[in-house]
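Suppose a colleague, Dr. K., hands you the sequence of a protein chain of 120 amino acids and asks what its three-dimensional shape might be. Before reaching for any lab equipment, you can write down a predicted structure in token form. Begin with the sequence itself:
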Amino acid sequence: QVQLVESGGGLVKAGGSLRLSCAASGFIYLIDAMGWYRQAPGKERELVAAITSGGNTNYADSVKGRFTISRDNGKNTVSLYLDMSSLNPEDTAVYYCNARYRLNPPRAYWGQGTQVTVSS
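The predicted structure, expressed as tokens, is then:
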């Protein structure tokens, strides 16, 4: 059974830092790319950062230079991280972990989301 569990959200002042974590379990050998998405109130969900199984990364322009995505392919779980720095109130959102599985057809799984609130 596939499960993605996020942690690390919270309240932080502008200019501060946070680290989000996501633990993916279940058929992890089928995981291809992983990513972090966010959704602010009244807005659509957007890609924040993504990383392939080979370690290639890409970022939304709004977070380049401030956020870093990384992953650790363990034996039983795959851990995904998002290190966020120089946070500003516009980063306030629910952050979701996403994992794309090499199924036929490919399928994406989502975590439950973790709230990040940046105060000014």
